[in-house]
Amino acid sequence: MVNNTEEEQIETLKRWWSDYGKSIILGAIVGLAGIFGWRYYQNHQVETRAAGAEEFAYISEQLSSKGAESFGEVIEFIERNQGNNYGELAALLLAKAAVDAQDLNLAVQQLKLALDGSKDAAISDTIRLRLARVLIAQEDFDGAQSYLNAVSNDAFLAERSEIQGDLYLAQADPSEAKAAYQAALEAGGLNDNPGLQLKLDNLAIGTELSSEAG
Q: What burial letters (b/e) apply to 33-48, b meaning 16+ CB within 10 Å?
């Protein structure tokens, strides 16, 4: 009976994950990417070459107005500017746009490129968290775990724990997911993040349904 209850709970959570889980993760990526891009811009000294600044402004506008139609042009800009702040920031902006367009392979590629060029530990950890989210959506669970393991800044404990919970849930491990979400909650993860409470609530509902079925 216990095994049946656990199996029913896992099936309930799998259905919830299939319907809502990936949308929540990708929504978080898109929502945070704009904030992160601006912080990245604020905290990095951008080179002052007029031509480079004008071209970066142009490709940023192209991404904003044309979306996927501009990806090829933006990629060319990034290739020409590898190793400078314009190229790194453009890679982050392209990763956000790629998530919007559901091109997760391109998003991973650009996030890795930005990570390779980052010289700031906190920004590197933020990129690793974004990578973990996208890789969970791609069901590359080992890859996602490797990036989560590399996050060392305590300032990201709440977000890291929440993403760890997403990873466990995607792998149909509700008990570990709940523990990770609780850790995120205790680390202050509910601040401006109602999605965390939603995840905990859905885990509780899944447990109740399984108990009633048992």
A: beebbeebeeeeeeee
User: Rounded to the nearest 5°, which phi and psi values hold at 103?
Assistant: -100, 80
Is residue 118's pLDDT more than 60? yes
Regarding predicted confidence, which is higher, 30 or 2? 30
Report the candidate in 177, 202, 185, 204 with the shortest Cα–Cα distance to residue 16: 202
pLDDT tens figures, 32-87: 555 455 555 555 544 445 567 788 889 889 998 999 999 999 999 999 988 778 88
One-letter amino acid at 90 equals A
Longest dimension (CA), the chain: 70
The CA-based dihedral angle spanning residues 22, 25, 26, 29, taken in that order and rounded to the nearest 10 degrees? -170
Distance of alpha carbon 156 from alpha carbon 129, whole angstroms: 9
CA atoms of 133 and 122, how far apart (whole Å): 17
pTM: 0.74
pLDDT of residue 197: 85
DSSP structure string for 68-129: GGGHHHHHHHHHHTTTSHHHHHHHHHHHHHHHHTT-HHHHHHHHHHHHHH---HHHHHHHHH
Q: How far apart are CA 204 and CA 16, in angstroms?
A: 12
Neighbours of 74 (CB within 10 A): 21
Residues 6+ positions from 161 with CB-CB distance below 8 Å? 180, 181, 183, 184, 187, 189
